C-alpha cells in the first residue's frame, strides 16, 4: 500500500471501532498514557525514547479523514462484523468540523532521552469533547512504538558494554560509534521494520548496512547521512571462484578496493587455514602494503564466536605481529582488524571482549556486526510496553481511573493526569493524579489537532542518548545502578 493510499480509519484493532458505544454517557475526555513497565531482574532498567516523530509525520499529521476513506471503512467493517457498527456520523463530524485533522494532543518525552522504566513516556487526550473516543482509537498504532524504543534501548546497551571494554583496554573511546554494525536488514519482518529498527540503532552508532534506516533518518529526522559502511565480500563472491581458488578470490577484493577499508568473509572453507596460509602467507605482503585508512577487516562467520575469534587473532599475531598500546594491551598492526558478525548478542559480545581482555588483547582489534539480536529477537514484552487510560471527564467532572488486577499486581496502572519530573535526588519520577507542577514537567507537546508541534533532528536525539559519565566509569556505573535499583524497589517511580 502506497503512503497516499493509507486509510487511518482502518489502522486499528477492529474491536475498537465499537468502543464509541461503550463509554459512559456524557463522557467528554479520555486521557491515556504509554509506559515501559518496571520489571525486576532485567538488564534493561532504562529505555531510550525514539520513533514517535516518524509515526506522527507519516500517519497522523494533516487531514487523515476524507469522505472516500469513510466510505471505504464503512464497507469494510460492514463485511467484517456482518452488522452496522461503524461510527460513520462521528467520523464525518471529524471531517466537517476539523477538516479531517485529528483533535488530539500528544505530550511526550523528548526523543533520545534515557528514562527509567515505570515512568510515563507520552500521554494522549482529545481536545474536542465530541471526539473522546479518538484517544484510544489510535492506541494500536501508538503502541507500535515498542519496536523503535526497544531497538534503541538494546543498541545502547551494546554501546555501554563496548565502551566499558574499549576504555579499559585502550584508554580511550576512539572509534566507539563504529564498533557495532547493523547487519539486520534481511532478518526483519518488513521494509518498515528495517527502517524503524535501523534508524533506532543510528541513535547510538554510525555503522550500518541497513539502507532503510538511513533513509528514515534522512526523511524524518533531518540527517543527510546518519551512518557509514565499507565494501565487503559475502560468501557468494568468494565461493563463486571455487574452493581451489579462494586465494584468487581474496586477491580480487584487494585489487578492486586498494584504498579504503574492506571486509572479507574468510570462513567459506577453513577460517584458520585462510588466516594462516592465505592472508598470513600467500597474501601477506599485499596485506602489509595497506594502511590504517585502508585496513583489511577479516570476518569469521561460523563456530563458537569467542573461541573462533581468539584463535583467529592468535594466528594473525603469529603472522603479522602485534604491539602494546598505552595501557599495555596487544593491538594488531593498524592495517589489520577483525569483525565478528555471527552469534552476537548482549551476552556474547561481553563474553568475547572479556576473554580477549583476559588474553591481553585490546577491544581496538575487533568490530562487531549484529542482525537479529539487534532488530528482531525482541517483542512488546521485552520492555513491557503498555498504553492505559488514567483520567476521564464525564458531565464536566474529572475522575482518576486505573486498573488493578488481583491476579497480577504488576499490571496495575497509573492514575489521573501525569507529568514527569526530576526530583531533588536527581531521579526521574512520574507524578500522578494531576499533582505535578507544569513548570517541572518534562513532557513536551509534540502533536496537536493534526499538526506536528515539535520536530527533533537526529543530532539532537543523539545528544540526548549519549552515554553518561557514570556509564563510562565501571565503579560509578555500579554505584548508579545500585541507587537506581533501590529507587525502583522502594517504589519511588
UniProtKB/TrEMBL annotation:
Subcellular location: Nucleus; Cytoplasm; Secreted
Species this chain originates from: Lates calcarifer
Subunit structure: Homodimer.
Name this protein carries in UniProt: Nicotinamide phosphoribosyltransferase
Reaction(s) catalysed (UniProt annotation): beta-nicotinamide D-ribonucleotide + diphosphate = 5-phospho-alpha-D-ribose 1-diphosphate + nicotinamide + H(+)
One GO term describing the cellular component: nucleus
EC number: 2.4.2.12
Family annotation (CDD domains): PBEF_like
Signal peptide residues on this chain, from the entry's feature table: none
Amino acid at each position: 500500500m502506497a503512503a497516499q493510499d493509507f486509510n487511518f480509519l482502518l489502522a486499528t484493532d477492529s474491536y475498537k471501532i465499537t468502543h464509541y458505544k461503550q463509554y459512559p454517557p456524557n463522557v467528554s475526555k479520555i486521557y491515556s498514557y504509554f509506559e515501559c513497565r518496571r520489571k525486576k531482574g532485567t538488564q534493561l532498567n532504562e529505555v531510550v525514547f525514539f520513533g514517535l516523530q516518524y509515526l506522527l509525520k507519516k500517519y497522523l499529521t494533516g487531514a487523515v479523514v476524507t469522505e472516500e476513506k469513510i466510505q471505504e471503512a464503512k464497507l469494510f467493517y460492514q463485511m467484517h462484523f456482518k452488522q452496522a457498527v461503524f461510527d460513520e456520523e462521528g467520523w464525518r463530524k471529524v471531517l466537517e468540523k476539523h477538516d479531517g485533522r485529528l483533535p488530539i494532543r500528544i505530550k511526550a518525552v523528548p526523543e533520545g532521552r534515557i528514562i527509567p522504566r515505570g515512568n510515563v513516556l507520552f500521554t494522549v487526550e482529545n481536545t474536542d469533547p465530541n471526539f473522546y473516543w479518538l484517544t484510544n482509537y489510535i492506541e494500536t498504532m501508538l503502541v507500535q512504538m515498542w519496536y523503535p524504543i526497544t531497538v534503541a534501548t538494546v543498541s545502547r546497551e551494546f554501546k555501554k558494554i563496548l565502551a566499558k571494554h574499549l576504555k579499559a583496554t585502550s584508554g580511550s573511546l576512539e572509534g566507539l560509534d563504529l564498533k557495532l554494525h547493523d547487519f539486520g536488514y534481511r532478518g526483519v519482518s518488513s521494509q518498515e521494520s528495517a527502517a524503524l529498527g535501523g534508524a533506532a540503532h543510528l541513535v547510538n552508532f554510525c555503522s550500518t548496512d541497513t539502507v532503510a534506516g538511513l533513509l528514515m533518518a534522512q526523511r524524518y529526522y533531518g540527517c543527510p547521512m546518519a551512518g557509514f559502511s565499507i565494501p565487503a565480500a559475502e560468501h557468494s563472491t568468494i565461493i563463486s571462484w571455487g574452493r581451489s581458488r579462494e586465494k584468487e578470490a581474496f586477491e580480487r577484493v584487494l585489487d578492486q578496493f586498494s584504498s579504503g577499508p574492506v571486509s572479507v568473509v574468510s570462513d567459506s572453507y577453513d577460517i584458520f587455514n585462510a588466516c594462516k596460509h592465505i592472508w598470513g602467507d600467500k597474501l601477506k605482503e599485499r596485506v602489509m602494503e595497506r594502511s590504517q585508512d585502508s585496513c583489511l577487516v577479516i570476518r569469521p562467520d561460523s563456530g563458537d564466536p569467542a573461541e573462533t575469534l581468539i584463535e583467529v587473532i592468535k594466528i594473525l599475531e603469529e603472522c603479522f605481529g602485534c604491539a602494546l598500546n598505552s595501557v599495555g594491551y596487544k593491538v594488531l598492526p593498524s592495517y589489520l582488524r577483525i569483525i565478528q558478525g555471527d552469534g552476537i548478542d548482549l551476552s556474547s559480545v561481553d563474553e568475547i571482549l572479556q576473554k580477549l581482555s583476559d588474553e591481553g588483547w585490546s577491544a581496538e582489534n575487533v568490530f562487531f556486526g549484529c542482525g537479529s539480536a539487534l532488530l528482531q529477537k525482541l517483542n512488546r514484552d521485552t520492555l513491557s510496553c503498555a498504553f492505559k487510560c488514567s483520567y476521564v471527564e464525564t458531565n464536566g467532572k474529572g475522575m482518576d481511573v486505573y486498573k488493578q488486577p488481583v491476579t497480577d499486581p504488576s499490571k496495575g496502572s497509573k492514575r489521573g493526569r501525569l507529568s514527569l519530573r526530576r526530583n531533588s535526588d536527581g531521579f526521574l519520577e512520574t507524578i500522578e493524579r494531576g499533582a505535578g507542577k507544569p513548570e517541572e514537567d518534562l513532557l513536551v507537546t509534540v502533536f496537536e489537532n493534526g499538526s506536528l508541534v515539535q520536530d527533533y533532528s537526529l543530532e539532537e536525539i543523539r545528544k540526548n542518548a549519549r552515554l553518561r559519565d557514570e556509564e563510562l566509569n565501571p565503579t560509578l556505573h555500579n554505584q548508579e545502578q545500585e541507587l537506581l535499583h533501590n529507587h525502583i524497589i522502594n517504589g519511588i517511580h
